[in-house]
From TrEMBL:
The chain crosses the membrane at residues 12-32, 44-68, 80-102, 108-129, 141-160, 166-187, 199-218, 230-252. This is CPBP family intramembrane metalloprotease. PANTHER family: CAAX AMINO TERMINAL PROTEASE FAMILY PROTEIN (PTHR36435:SF1), SLR1288 PROTEIN (PTHR36435). GO terms for biological process: CAAX-box protein maturation. Residues 109-207 form the CAAX prenyl protease 2/Lysostaphin resistance protein A-like domain. The keyword Magnesium does not apply. Keywords: Hydrolase, Membrane, Metalloprotease, Protease, Transmembrane, Transmembrane helix. It comes from Neogemmobacter tilapiae. It holds the Pfam family Rce1-like. InterPro entries: CAAX_protease, Rce1/LyrA-like_dom. One of its GO terms (molecular function) is endopeptidase activity. The keyword Lipid metabolism does not apply.
Amino acid sequence: MVLRNWLQRHPITAALLILFLWMAITVLGSTLNSGGVQRTQIEAISAGVTWQILLAALFLLLVARWLGWRDLGFVQTNSLAALQLAWFPSLYILLFALMALIVGLPPLGFVLIVLINCLFVGLSEELMFRGILFAAFARRWPIWPAILASSLLFGAIHSLNAFGTGMLFLALLQSVAASLSGLFLIALRLRSRSLWPPIVFHAVWNFALLTAGGAAMGQVDMTEAAASVGLRQGLLAIAFQLPIALYALYLLRHIHRVRAEP
């Protein structure tokens, strides 16, 4: 009881501690799941169901319930309005889908495993960053610092991919790109006033991208292949996210006029 009361009075400290434990569950589970063997991102997410991701999400739900945090965004929203907000990034998803259809879809088993894992990742990461972390920051800070801090931390944790792939350069590029994509995800969270739209969009985005990657490269990560040829290709991967980040800033142009806490 004493610990819970203290954490409730210090939401940012509590959220950062939760983030550390969430990362530990995710990274340790991934290491155990792979047997310590380094794999590409697509190999890791298509090798089997990533139960550690689901376990990490369940951990977040239990801790949030224990702390009595009710402002994480699990509320109903207007699905059509949320889809309209996501129209521009959805063009990318259609492009990924078209690529997969042109090249030829991967085997059904690959597609199903990737779909399940992308759903787990969407739930776990959105609950952590656009749910718990953003809500904690928004209780103490103005809206823009809360937005930027949650987006930068979202990008930073993608550097942990280096533990699984052994490619630090690629992981750093993914961190920058993820920070940019985080701006859109938080914009979708705030404009829809619900956590469900970013969860669904995150899952569909990853699924479309990884399915296209599996189709085009025979289960070799396209981003990894591009990054390996040099800095130029890596910067192109980051530039891929820039238009979406600019669109996110457009969506957030009046967000300072509302309360930070949804």
